[in-house]
Each structure stands twice: as C-alpha cells, then as structure tokens.
Amino acid sequence: MSGASLLSVKDLRVAFGGKAVVHGIDFDLAPGEKLALVGESGSGKTVTALSLLRLALNAEVSGSARFAGNGGGEGPRELLSLPERALRGIRGKEIAMIFQEPMTALNALYTVGDQIAEVLELHEALPRRAAQEAAVQLLADTGIPEPQRRARAFPHQLSGGQRQRAMIAMALACKPRLLLADEPTTALDVTVRAQILELLAELQRQYRMAVLMITHDLNLVHRFADRVAVMEQGQIVEQGAVATVFGDPQHPYTRKLIDSRPARELPQAPAQEAEPVLEAQALRVSYPVSRPGVAGWFRKGEFVAVQGADFRIGPGETLGVVGESGSGKSTLALAALGLLPHGGNLDVAGQRWSASGAGDRALRRLMQVVFQDPFSSLSPRMTVEQIVGEGLTVHAPELDGAARRTRALAALADVGLTEVQFPALLDRYPHEFSGGQRQRLAIARALIVEPRLLVLDEPTSALDVTIQKQVLGLLQRLQRERGLSYLLITHDVEVIRAMAHQVIVMKDGAILEAGEALRVLDAPEHPYTQKLVAAAVG
C-alpha cells in the first residue's frame, strides 16, 4: 500500500454460493479524496462497498483491504481478516456508511434523534443526555430546520430529503475518516439532490474525510468526485481523474455510459386545432384535514393539492409535468385518470368522468398508466400472461384464452420482449426479469388495450442511465408508430428535455410556468423554474 493511501484494496474478490460477482479489483483512496465507483445495477459497486466492512450477508470475500487507521500512529489494518469485535469498533466510528434508501435504513420504531444518539453512546461513550444534545446539533449541521423538533420525529414523519440528511448526520456523528455513500441522492428531487451534494462536499471539507461514492449518476460524479473507477460485471474497466476519464474515455463501456444521455427524437407536435385527447380547465383537487383545537370538532379544514390547473394534450403529443415532491404532480395525474374527485372541467377525448365504474370503463380503456417502480407495480404472484393480459379481461371480455395469448405476445414483441429471448415467456414471473425488462412488461400491460394516452409517472427514475435511455427510446418509437399521447410526470429535467413537446412547472399545487418544452428549459422565466434547471445542469 502506498504511504499516502487511507484505503488500499488489492485483488478484492466476492462470491455468493461459489458464483463470483467481483473479480479481483484494485483501487486506492487517499485521505480527504473523493472517489466515485460508477456502473450499472449488477456491476458489483454496492457489494464492493459492503464487503469492505463485511456487511454483505453470506458473501465469500478474499483479497486485501488495508485501512490506515485513525491517524494516531496505528499501522494499517486488514479489514477482511480483522476479528469481528475489532471491526465493530471501526464501523460507524472510523468508516461510516450512507445507504441508498433512508426509509428502509432507518429504524421505523425509534426517533431520528435516538438513532443518532445511539451511535454516540456506543462509539464515544457519551452519557444519554449529552448524546441527545449532540444529535440535535448534528441535525442542525446538516441543515434540517427546527432540529430539536425533528430529533423527536420518527422517520416516516420526515420528507425524503430530511431523512437523507438524518442519515448523513448519523454517519458523521463520530467524525469518520472514510465515508461510504451508496447512491445517496437517487431517490431525491433534483433540487434536493443538489442540496445534499453540496452538503456532503461541505462536510467532507469540514471533517477532512475521504468519500467512496457509489453511483450511476454521471452528473453527480462530474460535480462531486476527484477520481472515478468504472465497474462492469464485477471488474474495474477504467479509472483515473474525472476530467481525464470523462474527457477521453478509453473503454467502450465507459463511452457507453457517457453516451447514455437521453436523445430528443419526437414526432412533430399536433396542430393546435386538433381535438385534444385530454383537456383540463381550472382543475382543482383538495383533501379534508383536521383543524386544531375545538374548531376541528365541528368542521374539517382543507388542503388544496392542485389549484386552478389548465392544460391540454393533443394526439401524439407529450405534456411534461415537472416539480419537486409535494408539488402536486402525482395528484394531477390521479385526477386525470379519474381516480380522485376534482373540481373544474376535465375532458378525455371530449367526455367527462362520471364517477361510476360502468360509465367510465370506456374512458379507462383510452387512458392507461405506467408507474415509477416496475417491481412494486407488478404482482409477484402473477405470470407475465396474467399481468399483460389482465386488461383484456375487462375491456375485451369477448376474447377467448388463445386470442388473449396472441394479443399478449404481440404487445410484448412491441416492447422488445420475445419468446426467442425468453423461452416460455408468458409463464415467467416478474422477479425473473431485470428492472428495465420489468418496465417493458408494465408498458406492454398498458398498451394491450390500445389506449390513446399513457400517464407515465416517473417511468425511468428507478433505472440505470443506459436502461433509462432504452426505455425512453422505446416510448418515443411507440409514440411515432401509434400516435400515442403522454402525460409525463417527472422531476428529471433531462427526461423532460428528451420527451416533452409542452411542459408545465408545478409548485405547491399551482402551475408557475407553462409553454413549449425547449423554450421553458432554455429560457425559464420564473425563479423556481430557473432553480430547477440550474440544479439539473449543476
């Protein structure tokens, strides 16, 4: 190991049940350095990070991972062979970790403050009261408003960005020398993502710690890292300074990642006089809420989630709806689908939702939805045939089993899934497919009833950059071939740029800016739109 290295990894190999997933990788990390480990899902990034602290369950790990210690004259220690008791003293104290999904990483049964205080009690031997006071200060350092009150909150009572800040506060409680950050911003809105990135950079400078960032977000790497190591199928195929690797990539896989930015290939927007597939005028959605005090006994209050929204979507047109979490995007989509009571006018192909199952059945055939997470939106107990053909049992009950199978295979072929690739395709289950393939199944399920409009609710946010480009390319092709209209809900400005003809920008239930997509993104007029675009560009 180089004398300047804080962490030196040599010939690291990881296997599960005898099957290798990491194949002898080498990298070094200097004190105070920021190294990004980049690659698609399944490339071995997260397994590598977990294996350094021996947190990968049932993993067979070999090689060397030498950690230089706490700076007190102690020599480097071999993490892979250190006794478990000694390793516990390193985890959380000298090497800390931020996990990808804070909602699952934080304990739902304990307050955020108690969970941070526990780290200080275990590693710093602080008394309970002092640990709780320190936890409040750590939350304040991460920029959480009202830290004393938030310390008494449970994870579900915080927003996504606040939960991630709490996770960072917990990781930094003992001022570690090395921080392992596993996709720390992928579940966050673009503006919150920028805030978290700035926070990590500031805390990294303040604590002078090294950071190993696990990510597939190349924009994040550009903005944060000093060096980058690119992983493909368990191997590091290229590494070096960020500017060098991204400016002149040598490996084909690195070039593939860099070229994965979504391309704008849209059909011509329809003429304004064309009859809209979906049109809203003064659309309003509200929810009853409890009122404080005695007044709440007699009358409910009201929370307005969407207020006075006007928009139209022509045949073959994409309307992008962009905004942060809580802006009203998904509520607008649910109202458009006839799933929420609403005020104002909402017409689907010139017809109104009637709020009756039988009366709305024809309209529901015209509008279908593709959800954000294909794994949770597809039933694990249903076969591909049952999932894709389910809509036909409702909207085409006259078809027999053979006809439904034929239609299902045709819909799957339209999205690039065939029995040549996947023998016995119709008898398979969702867990047998990758994330991108599952999203193709979800699109096929929506297409089989031949809709005129698809509501796309964050359709690529759970996917890697290369798979995201493939799915967006598929949606663009289907739009050109079928004349489909899309209502695209997203917080990703780059997806809007690639997919949308028109865009509306929402905040707190209101539309702040609307117009032709490229005009709004290239010359935003409202300060909030300017903030969104700036955060996306970095």
Describe this structure in words.
The protein is α/β, with parallel strands linked by helices and 538 residues long. Helix 4 (112-124) crosses helix 5 and helix 16 crosses helix 17. It has a six-stranded mixed β-sheet with strand order 6-7-8-3-9-10, sandwiched between helices. The protein folds into three domains: 1-94 and 181-259, Rossmann fold (3-Layer(aba) Sandwich), CATH 3.40.50.300; 101-175, no CATH class; 278-537, Rossmann fold (3-Layer(aba) Sandwich). The protein is built from 22 helices and 20 strands. The chain is globular and about 75 Å long. The chain starts with 6 loop residues before the first strand and ends with a helix.
